[in-house]
Specification:
By secondary structure, the chain is an alpha/beta fold. It is built from twelve helices and nine strands. The chain is globular and about 60 Å long.
Length: about 325
Amino acid sequence: MKHRNFLKLALSTALLVAGLSANAQVTKIRFAHAGPEATSQHQAALEFAKLVKERSGGKLEVQVFPGSQLGNDSTVIGAVRGGTIEMMMAGSGNFAGLVPRLDVLDIPFLFRDQPHAYKTVDGDIGQSLMKGLETGGLKQLAFWEVGFRSITTKNRAVRTPADVKGLKIRTTPNPTHVQAWKLLGTNPVPMPLGELYQALEAGAVDAQEHPIDITYASKFYEVQKHLTMTRHAFTAMPVVFNKQKFDALSPELQKVLLSAASDGKLLQRNLNQKNEAHIIAELKKNGMQVIETFDPAPFKTLVNDDLRKSFIAKNGPELLTAVDAIK
């Protein structure tokens, strides 16, 4: 009897040790972003987490934190660089302080259409920009997207540059965006996405500009009446990992993260393209007046030369020339 009890105890101990050992092998990854849960970026992040768990055989486990739960973009970038959070994504302008050349992606009216933007970030230019983040302690896994931005306003529809003059508009902290809106005669007010709804509701700002899935998911239709499909700027979204922690993973697990990030990128793009008509219809149902046809030429005339000169003065002409040359 004693012998049997001893065997049972030994077996239980062995199973417990095996279980603890298996748990110890699981690397948990916190993935933070500012987008609401209904956005394509969050849906893609959930798919990324699922793919990572499957492809790593459970060795990697991703937990997604949307809606600025772990802090605003600036705070979370610092946390990922410092290693207290493993992973995050944010609009490319938030990283321009680390890689000034990233500003090229945020120049309004730079990209002719979606294929032009995708060829830029997926090709040699994008690879070069991604590599630049490594000096800041970040490993970029892929370029996802915030998308093409369109303006909403509370009291006036936007058709011409005259319609935006004097507006207090929320913008990103990116200097290129701020300069562009100043050139158009607005008063740009940089602020985090998480603070924007209240600012619109209180009248601290009159207008905002985001891709329409963020406008819809954030319920800005409750505090804004007019949407014009300006598509005035494309915002790429670097998905980044703490470089030291990425380098500490096995090559196999690194490949899992990279392949899942690439698949997540394609999923998000497909969602954005598939959902656009539905989102516009929903915004109309919720009372927004939507202008779907827009002439960008008068706006581009006012901002193009000055924005390009500013970028070239800081970074040289080569990068802009390369983007313009993409067919």
